[in-house]
Amino acid sequence: MHTDLCERFGIQYPIFAFTPSEHVAAAVSRAGGLGVLGCVRFNDPAELDKTLDWLDANTDGKPYGVDVVMPMKVPTEGTSTDLKSYIPADHISFVERTLQQLGVPPLPEGEGREGVLGWLHSVARSHVDIALSHRPVLIANALGSPPVDVINQAHEAGVLVAALAGAAKHAQSHVTNGVDIIIAQGYEAGGHTGEIASMVLTPEIVDAVGPNVPVLGAGGIGRGRQVAASLALGAQGVWTGSVWLTTAEYQNLNTNKGMTEAFLRATSADTVRTKVYTGKPARLLKTKWTEAWAAEDAPSPLPMPLQNLLVADAHNRMNAHGDPDVISMPVGQIVGTMNEVRPVADVMADLVAEFEATVDRLDKIR
Amino acid sequence: MHTDLCERFGIQYPIFAFTPSEHVAAAVSRAGGLGVLGCVRFNDPAELDKTLDWLDANTDGKPYGVDVVMPMKVPTEGTSTDLKSYIPADHISFVERTLQQLGVPPLPEGEGREGVLGWLHSVARSHVDIALSHRPVLIANALGSPPVDVINQAHEAGVLVAALAGAAKHAQSHVTNGVDIIIAQGYEAGGHTGEIASMVLTPEIVDAVGPNVPVLGAGGIGRGRQVAASLALGAQGVWTGSVWLTTAEYQNLNTNKGMTEAFLRATSADTVRTKVYTGKPARLLKTKWTEAWAAEDAPSPLPMPLQNLLVADAHNRMNAHGDPDVISMPVGQIVGTMNEVRPVADVMADLVAEFEATVDRLDKIR
């Protein structure tokens, strides 16, 4: 499994692994893929700095990337306290009422209630600045093209830029802005995603950006057959995320054991594409929490970044509570095949072996 | 491109083409695939009989199949006139008002107003009886497993039975009923479809039914790269539909030239999964008609078979009118790459050539 992207990044397999866990990212990079650390959870730049120090020291010199969340147009922005004044009282009382109905208690006195600030542009920019003081080979942006000056900043540091796209025209506009690599994020993916499924989206984006822009297939990829399918569709590599949430290494970050149980038992039908996580459509695990927001009397989700500020405290409370029925977490349709907790190296080895067996099989069909 | 299914059906390529047009079906079978004639449009069994006579005479002795629309549980059923008494007046006035607003005139005096009766179980059964008096090699059912006695009837005639499934558990239950071949119908497909995309659904169904039950990948397949991807996912063949709607041969059936224009200009984002066609979720071209049903003041679609009876006359009126903005037609997300009217043989040749090029490319990646 060797494409031009492997040369470009000095990696063995064109398997890119998005993860909020530095332990998963390091293990993927050590196993020959490219671990990409999600930065959105780092409110404190110093903590990201420290985590990247750890990554520098624990990847055996192998390359890694970082992922930020940054809209291309810089929004007018206040502090998180200012922004909270825009949240309607009805929304706040709906969240509180829902948590009560679902049996989720308040956090113990003194435990942190701060939301995730990484959705704020100024914080995402600080993530880029911190990251560039380390040795990432890639900065990926979950919201499409970053602002052009951020792309230039990365390029000056010799770092490539990848951006998610859910439609061919968005991919073309990312390339115009200077983005190097497009992540074709299909409908079946976890997190922010569009309506076009990978089977249609990947070749469409490959054709739209032309042969000089590598495309990573994303959405529905957790097995070697899916890696082979994505490369068959014209991708030069795959962008994976969900499949790492049930690895042994992820348990270092995940203190909510209910979440792992919820992933292990979920079928591919147990996800839902909804705006309740951030205000933009994102695929989440379908639970009593998402069902409550889908009820007829539920308020409409607020626009980004207000929705995440609204639910951030609820997320902390649900995580502390640990009920597998009451989870708020992005995950793709591939969750149906995430049925045991395994080390990252085993998942990587299976991806590669099944890919090779698949190409052998196709070779015989020809 | 040769799998066990080719031996089983005596075909050159495991490319199955669902189409309401006998001209398309014959051309696909002549070009080495398996043309599968959709029967739902035949209200008059004698007309189906005549059409199958034509197919028998125009396939150069090559095999073909038929497709019926039949729920597994036989519903209580009246005549179409009886059933119409269950349609609320508000629904009827909404349809009439919408057609007026969209500028669709009534049909000229004397033109047929009859709905599509193929959705009725008794009519679908007559399709099976007629078909078995010809030489189909396959009966496929768009609504999953047909009733067990219909499966037995087909088997006694030496005809294999295929059934659509949008979830692994449905596929398993089809197999228990005696269905021979599963069509894994992904979210991106046109017509009746579930929420799980092909990338996830196909391998899930392949694993669920085991190695002795062949699976056809369906949804998002219109190019050779997609055929290769589907076979990589474990399918033994592909089930295609939308891609034949812009063939030259289809124009024999399609008297609505606005429809072809609408397909040619549509992007992959211009479809919508909605219940407005039959009462069950089906992917249609997104037009002013589907948008009207999505408006806040629109009524909820009725259950099958009432919804199709409700809109059947509207479909006839829209087809006679020919406005590409006002179309009611199932089509998959692959419509974005259907950009010219071409002969069936050319589409087939491209599918095969691109498949082979894709396997060559994967071989080099390994």
From TrEMBL, chains A, B:
Pfam families: NMO. SUPFAM superfamilies: Inosine monophosphate dehydrogenase (IMPDH) (SSF51412). Keywords: Dioxygenase, Flavoprotein, FMN, Oxidoreductase. GO terms for molecular function: dioxygenase activity; nitronate monooxygenase activity. Coiled coil: none annotated. Gene3D superfamilies: Aldolase class I. This is Putative 2-nitropropane dioxygenase.
